[in-house]
Design a protein that fits this description.
The chain has 748 residues and is of the alpha/beta class. Helices cover 38% and strands 14% of the residues. α11 crosses α12. It comes from Hesseltinella vesiculosa.
Length: 748
């Protein structure tokens, strides 16, 4: 009976409405439902969301729940953003992959977590850690960071750390990988016919790395997707991964040693609902080793699932000891992230959409759009004010996973019109496309911009671009902008001018238009390859001419010291031996990185990291860039490499600029105040408080006569204390000066 009462903690359910419905309250009050999921249908504005979360928590408290509700949402950012306009727009995964900065990834996650927590949402079902290595994938695409599993792992771990450091639990998905499929599991059963060895090299790599993470970088939960894995699932062939013990138990729990909560994707997706059904699927999921089952939409399916689970408990077809372990894991998750005092408090929601988050949003979105092709140097666009500009925007067909503005391209048009008033806006679809082509609008325009959205999956968009290109080929006045997946170019490889925004949010559109009109440069890179494309590369217009490598004292010491002298030597002279001594302090777990010119092999940047406080406190001991190579991204890449290393060592619970003794600096030198903004923009708190290190050469020091004479007169001696007398000194210091004793012991 106790287990039957508690088992509701192992389900997550959703409902339709802006206030608690009778159905969801029934599950909370009468079935001990422990987790609730929100979708866009539950979210109108920040005040309403806060009322909703608080009323749900109060209902759970009144019903006698031991712990608060986990309230979850898919706020991946980009194209999956359940908060809509109730939160700050921030770049999604593939946009972050295009910027390729773990610092930016963490900042986005941290800002998102602060807004979610203010609204009462404590579990973000993110990040998506699928490797998107199939251009025809209809459901993942830009929800992935890209096609390189190492980059997906780095960016994903940074976001896990950011979310969880902000107090919001995470769920890495869709284990064991949903990237290499052309089927949407909302509508069917994707088949990934790969061996474990093949999965190990690509799909599983990001999950393995984050599972091995430490501290905040280890995910609170992992979500298993609904895909068929015929080479792994043998006991019941055809069973989806979410319902198969070979995945949850054998692979995730036993082989990868994951100890957190395992949750299924929603069982109302067709891959489960139309095969075994939601109710039977719930029992199968728990029997397979999942800790939690998600049923997001329909009350009847949710009630049926409870009934089926109760029946399975009654006839002992579910392993009760395994369920006890699942309950313990869910309880531990709640204890770590929730408390009644916090969830029922009247919290301040002013952080939602605050000025700092808006500034972060604009700064990052300006770095997102990628110019994939500009073969005829069409960009930046320069038109006379009278010249007619035609903007053709595709009618955007969406998948069930994606959130959209009511008119997705409206913000793009408005951004164009703010810069060029003589702009005509036309939405094209299969029905009106031929009328538009026959109208003469394309031929009469001085320039045509065509917006596409997953055009490689929708032939009418391809036809429009191809026909427009045929008419404008001689004029060279056509620009194509892909606002979701970057693969649209596959369908019209003849296009000369092509850029990608990775999402169709208003700030992404604004940034793309700014780039088109020359207000900002293109600095991002495609994080995926476009199959069959030979005319363009994955790089931005300015390719990097340096690489980041691990520091090798044998090969790099002389160059690194020369860089110090070139950049800092006038203010901070330091001989080579002392420079080396700081870098090799064995008690500080040193690990360093160099930025090396590809052309000359010269070191143009250097970053040094240390770890203190028994392996918990990461220290960026030094970050220096050759003055002749600054403002080219060298410092940013070194900064990322340094923090990625500290994250991998679990040394990001606390971070500091500067290091402990022996050190170069205790913080940012005052002579380098001009660089304070560099660190502030990457999340560091650069305080105005001054910290002083006293530096002097004591090798020739001798005690002044006036002091030696006084010591003789007062019978004071100065020298080594012997072990037999040391306890007396320590006891005296502990009684009167405990801080100084602890400081002495630390340095000793």
């Amino acid at each position: 009976m106790t287990l039957e009462k508690d088992v509701g903690q192992l389900l997550m359910c959703g409902f339709d409405g802006l206030a608690p419905t009778a159905d969801i309250l029934d599950l909370i009050k009468n079935h001990n439902l422990g987790s609730v999921i929100f979708f866009s249908r539950n979210i109108d504005n920040p005040e309403q969301v806060k009322r909703l979360t608080r009323s749900l928590q109060q209902a759970a408290r009144d019903a006698g729940h031991t712990r608060p509700l986990l309230i979850a949402v898919d706020q991946e950012n980009g194209v999956v953003r359940r908060l809509g306009t109730s939160g700050t727009y921030l770049p999604g995964n593939m946009a972050l992959g295009a910027m390729n900065s773990t610092t930016y990834a963490k900042q986005v996650a941290l800002a998102t977590s602060k807004e979610l927590l203010a609204l009462g949402i404590n579990w973000n079902l993110a990040p998506d850690m699928d490797v998107n290595n199939n251009a025809l994938n209809p459901v993942i695409g830009v929800r992935s960071y890209g096609e390189d599993p190492e980059s997906v792992a780095r960016l994903g771990m940074a976001q896990v750390e950011g979310y969880q450091k902000g107090g919001v639990a995470t769920s890495c998905k869709h284990f064991p990988g949903h990237g290499d499929t052309a089927t949407d599991s909302h509508l069917g059963v994707p088949v990934i016919d790969k061996s474990l060895h093949e999965l190990d090299k690509v799909e599983l790599l990001p999950f393995k790395k984050t599972i091995a993470g430490k501290g905040h970088a280890q995910p609170a939960s992992i979500m298993i997707g609904h895909m068929s894995l015929p080479q792994l699932i043998k006991k019941r062939p055809g069973t989806t991964a979410s319902l198969a013990p070979e995945v949850a138990k054998d692979l995730l729990r036993d082989r990868l040693h994951y100890q957190g909560v395992i949750i299924t994707d929603c069982l109302e997706m067709d891959a489960v609902k139309d095969t075994v059904g939601c109710a039977r699927g719930s029992v199968m999921a728990l029997a397979a080793g999942n800790d939690m089952v998600m049923i997001s939409h329909t009350y009847e399916y949710q009630k049926d699932a409870f009934t089926e689970i109760y029946q399975s408990l009654g006839d002992c077809t579910l392993d009760q000891s395994a369920l006890d372990q699942s309950l313990a894991r869910v309880a531990a998750l709640k204890d770590k992230y929730l408390s009644w005092d916090v969830v029922l408090a009247e919290s301040d929601i002013s952080i939602v959409g605050c000025e700092a988050h808006q500034e972060l949003s604009k700064r990052l979105y300006d770095k997102v759009p990628t110019v994939v092709r500009n073969l005829s140097h069409t960009l930046p666009l320069k038109l006379s004010s009278e010249a007619p500009l035609l903007f053709l925007a595709a009618h955007v067909p969406m998948t069930l996973a994606i959130d959209s503005e009511p008119e997705p391209f409206q913000s793009f048009y408005e951004a164009i019109q703010r810069r060029h008033i003589n702009t005509e806006y036309v939405v094209y679809n299969e029905d009106n496309m031929h009328d538009i082509l026959a109208s003469g609008k394309i031929d009469q325009a001085a320039h045509v911009i065509i917006g596409t959205a997953n055009a490689n999956l929708h032939p009418f968009q391809c036809t429009m671009v191809q026909r427009a290109h045929q008419r404008l080929q001689q004029k060279n006045n056509l620009t194509v902008v892909a606002v979701i997946n970057p693969y649209d170019l596959m369908a019209f490889p003849e296009i000369d001018t092509y850029l990608v925004t990775y999402e169709y949010t208003p700030p992404a559109h604004e940034a793309a238009v700014r780039l088109i009109f020359g207000e900002i440069p293109s600095t991002s890179r495609l994080p995926v390859k476009i199959p069959g494309d030979q005319a363009s590369s994955t790089s931005s217009e300015e390719s990097e001419d340096f690489t980041i490598q691990a520091y090798d004292a044998n090969d790099d010491l002389t160059q690194a010291w020369a860089l110090w002298n070139h950049a800092l030597g006038d203010s901070w002279p330091l001989d080579k031996q002392q420079f080396h001594k700081v870098l090799t302090n064995p008690t500080a777990h040193p690990c360093h990185f160099v930025a090396r010119s590809v052309q000359s092999s010269k070191i143009i940047g250097f970053a040094a990291t240390m770890i203190g406080d028994e392996g918990k406190a990461g220290q960026l001991a030094l970050l220096v860039v050759d003055p002749d190579h600054q403002r080219r991204g060298v410092g940013s890449k070194l900064h990322d490499a340094a923090l990625d290393h500290l994250r991998s060592q679990g040394a990001t619970a606390s971070l500091r600029l500067g290091s402990t003794y022996p050190r170069f600096f205790p913080g940012l030198p005052r002579s380098q105040d001009k660089h304070a903004d560099f660190f502030a923009r990457r999340g560091w708190q650069v305080a105005s408080t001054e910290v002083h290190d006293l530096v002097g050469n004591l090798t020739e020091y001798s005690t002044p006569p006036r002091l030696t004479q006084r010591m003789e007169r007062e019978k004071i001696w100065f020298g080594r204390i012997t072990p037999k007398d040391l306890w007396k000194l320590f006891a005296f210091q502990q009684q009167y000066f405990p801080y100084w004793l602890s400081t002495y012991m630390h340095h000793a």
